[in-house]
Amino acid sequence: MQISYFQNIHDVSKSRPYSALIEEFREVATACDEGGFDCFWMPEHHFSVWGRELVPNPILLAADIAARTRRCRIGLSAAIITFWHPIRLAEDLAMLDHLTGGRLIIGVGRGNYGLEASNLNPLADPNNPAGNMKVFAETLEIVKRALGNDRFSYKGDIYQFPAPGFKADRAHSVNDPAYVDPETGELTQLSIFPRALQQPLPPFWQVVSDSEESMRFAAKQDCGVLMWRPTVKELQRRLAVYRDAYRDAHGIERPLGAGTGIVRDTFVAETEQELRVAEGPLMGALNFANWRGPRIYLDPGETLDAETETALRHRITLDFVRDRSLLFGTPDQVVEKIVQLHAATGIEQLVIKCSWPGLAHEHCMRSIKLLTDEVLPRVRQRLGRPASIAAE
C-alpha cells in the first residue's frame, strides 16, 4: 500500500493574498516529499464564492510543485476533464509529464457542480448524468489516444479530430501520406508534441463517488479508482465490484484492492485535547459537503431511524463519523487504524488529508510532521515496506 497526501487551497475569510496561500501549499508539498509520502495529490474547482476550493488549474500548480519536489509522484485528483478541450488537455498533460520527470499520475473526474459546468461546458452538466458521462467518456478516449500514439484520430457524437474538411493551406502544407488522404488531400491524422514521457501512458485514475457504473467504467478503461469516505465494509463491497468488472473487461484476476484508493480525513496529535483543535474545521468541511446526507457513511444494508436520519442530514457529528470514515487520533491509534484498513481491504493507495478551511496552517504542518516521523515508518515496517520511498 502506498500512502499519499491530498491538499486543497482555501480561505473562507476571503481576505488573504493568494500568493500567501500558494506559499503554504508549497510548504505542505515539500514537507510531504521530504517526509516520505508516495504521491502528492491536488484538485480542480472553479468559482468558489465560499472560499473553500481555490485551485482552478491543477496542471499549472502541479508544474510548480514538481519543480520543488524530488521523490513523490504528482497526482491530479482530479482534473475535471469535462471542462477542458480534449486536445489542449492532452498537450498540457504530456508537457506536465515531462516537467515532473515522469512522476505524473493523471486523476480524472466528471465534475459535481452545476455552477462550474453551466459556465465552462453546459454539455457536461452533472444534473444531466447521461450527457455528462458522454462528454467524459469521449474526452478520456481522446486524451488517451493522443498521449499513447504517434498519430491519432477520433470521431464521436461530440468531438471529431482532425476537424473534417481541412486541407493544406499556405500556412500548413501537410503532404505527408501518414497524415493525409492521398486522394483528397484531407487531413486524417493528428499528432501532439511532445508525447507523454511515460509510455505507453502515464497511470490513469478516476475519482468516483458510490456509482457502480463509474467503477465499472473505470475498470474497463484500465483506470484506478479513488474514493472518498466510505466505511470499511462499504469499501469492501465497492472493491469487489471494481475487481469483478476489471476481470470481465481484461480477463485478469486481481486481488481485492488492486488499482483502488481511498481518501481519509486525518489528524494526528499527541493527546485527545490537541485533537480538538481540528474538530471544528473538519466538521465544518464535512457538513459543507453534507448534501448527500449520512448515507455515504453507512455500511451496506445499514439504515437509520427517522429521527437520527433527520438530525444527521441537518448536521453530521464527529461521534458519528469518527470510526466510520476518519483517521483521527494519536500516532499509535492512527498506525493501528491504517494497518487494519489495509488488512481488511488490500487497498493500493491511502490518501491522507489533514487540512480544512479554518484550521491554522501550523496545526496542519504539525499533523504532517507526526505522520512522517511516527506513523509512516511504522506502518511501512508493519506492511513489510522500507521505511521511506527514498530507500525503495
What would a concise description of this structure say?
The protein has 392 residues and is of the alpha/beta class. It is built from twelve helices and twelve strands. The strands form two sheets. Strands 1-2-3-5-8-9-10-12 form an eight-stranded parallel beta barrel, surrounded by six helices. A two-stranded antiparallel sheet has the order 6-7.
Summing up helix and strand content along with how strands pair, one would put the structural category as: alpha/beta
Report the order of strands and helices. Answer: EHEHEEHEHHEEEHEHEHHHEHEH
Low-confidence region ranges: none
Shape call:
globular
Distance linking N and C termini: 13 Å
Percentage of residues in DSSP E strands = 5-15%
Number of continuous helical runs: 12
Instruction: Give me the CATH fold name.
Output: TIM Barrel
The level 1 CATH classification is Alpha Beta
Helix content: 40-55%
| Strand order within the widest beta sheet | 1-2-3-5-8-9-10-12
Write the CATH homologous superfamily.
Answer: Luciferase-like domain
Query: What is the average of the pLDDT values?
Result: 95
Number of E-state strands? 12
